[in-house]
Amino acid sequence: MDRRHFLTATALGATANQLLPGLLHGQRGPDLAESDPQAALQKASRTFPTNFWWGAATAAYQLEGAAAEDGRKPSIWDTFSHTKGKVVNGDTGDVACDHYHRYKDDVELMAELGVKHYRFSISWPRVIPDGRGTVNQKGVDFYKRLCDELRAHGITPHATLYHWDLPQALQDKYKGWQSREIVNDFADYATAMVNGLGDRVTHWMTLNEILTFSVVGYGVGNTAPHAPGLALARKKDQLQIIHHALLAHGHACQAIRAAAKGTCSVAIAENFSPYVPVVETPEHIEAARLAFTRTDFNGAIITPLLTGKYDPYWLAQQGAEAPDVKAGDMELIHQKLDALGFNCYTGTYVRAANTPAGFETLDTFEGYPRMALPWLTLVPESIYWGIRMITDALGQKALPIFISENGCADSGPVSSTREMQDTDRVMYLRQYLRQVQRAVDDGYPVVGYFPWSLMDNFEWAEGYTKRFGLVHVDYATQKRTPKLSYRWFQQVIKSGVVR
């Protein structure tokens, strides 16, 4: 497709599925002469359910700052970011967005945006500085103040227990996620948080992106680019870390429910890999289904998490590298979830093929549209097919799904004196949200959408060079300025319509 056709398709938006066959999801649409403009307009005006969770998302280390205040001790990301050469420009999360001191202003921004749900993470080393043992009440009190401020503005708190900031003390003591010891420590941490915050928080997420912190934090034969930045000898070691994380999730689910004084919702946020049939015909849809369960690392994470067993094909492919599983492990992993968070940024096209796996994936080449990071290819259909395959591939027909992250780094000029014109983010969010609407229309149990992120923040190994926020942050002054995408999303929330 040439540039002119791509730009035309983007401008047409919701009608592109009818007018440009194959652009968004490969479906054969009517001829141009047969299209009904009024019907297309009506379709473009369909609203999301009135009880849909419109939210925003952040993470503790990326936002809070106050790295050494009120009893907080270092996490593996403090150690990693302070190690020369690990993060662009030597950036750290020491100050970040200073949310620890400015949370009231940030909640005001959420209220103005119109969100009624806010996903944040709790800093484990802030509330239990040594990872186990004594609870730091000053740390817990911060989250109490934050939740009180949210609730005063009619915003429901959604707390994630782990968003990658493992206490350095546990990394030093037993190598963190490499040890099964972490399973009990994580459950104890979960219990402490429900005891401390359960009167304010009823929506809990155990872990954020097992895939990322286990695979991007621990390389096989090479040094990993995220904390703790280690090199493992074998893939088996990496898969064992994933297995420990799954066990920790299961144990934490039990701990949350045991400690909760009333009704609570328990979820996990995972960036499982969505596979998009290059053409929506039965054979290619079946190829997408097979790819969903059989490829790394869906076979290692989302499949056992939701089914209680590793996919047999995937397990056979691992051979001697498969993780060691003890009696009772799979039962512990397979805890009932009240909802599933889906972190979606991009996806992979797939088609049927005469291969042992029954499919082949398709590359995106240099000319394929990408956002401001080389890995972030524009695949709006991925969010629809990721949602759909939880039912079609894993049989979870009634499990509520919410988009716990979706977004991109903007590439426009940075400005702290006027609204930033992040038209690339508006385009990205519009196309992905239309695919979320498609999933809602098709009857899949989609209940919410949390774009990443509320505001610019510390973007891990990229430091402060990549900006994912709806709100611009001038890191020198901590001034917050809503971007064009903030105003656009504000209207989506207000109307319940993607325009």
Overview of this protein structure:
The chain is of the alpha/beta class and 499 residues long. The protein has one domain: Glycosidases (TIM Barrel), CATH 3.20.20.80. The protein has 19 helices and 15 strands. It has helices at residues 3-12, 16-19, 37-44, 60-63, 76-81, 99-113, 124-127, 137-152, 168-174, 181-197, 210-215, 235-259, 282-294, 302-307, 312-318, 329-333, 381-392, 423-441, 484-495, and strands spanning 53-57, 117-121, 156-162, 203-208, 218-220, 230-232, 265-270, 275-277, 340-343, 348-352, 359-362, 401-405, 446-449, 471-474, 479-482. The longest helix is centred in the middle third of the chain and has 25 residues, at 235-259.
Layout of secondary structure:
Blueprint: H1 3-12, H2 16-19, H3 37-44, E1 53-57, H4 60-63, H5 76-81, H6 99-113, E2 117-121, H7 124-127, H8 137-152, E3 156-162, H9 168-174, H10 181-197, E4 203-208, H11 210-215, E5 218-220, E6 230-232, H12 235-259, E7 265-270, E8 275-277, H13 282-294, H14 302-307, H15 312-318, H16 329-333, E9 340-343, E10 348-352, E11 359-362, H17 381-392, E12 401-405, H18 423-441, E13 446-449, E14 471-474, E15 479-482, H19 484-495
Parallel strand pairs: 1-2, 1-13, 2-3, 3-4, 4-7, 5-6, 7-9, 8-10, 9-12, 12-13
Antiparallel strand pairs: 10-11, 14-15
Helix pairs in contact: 6-8, 10-12, 17-18
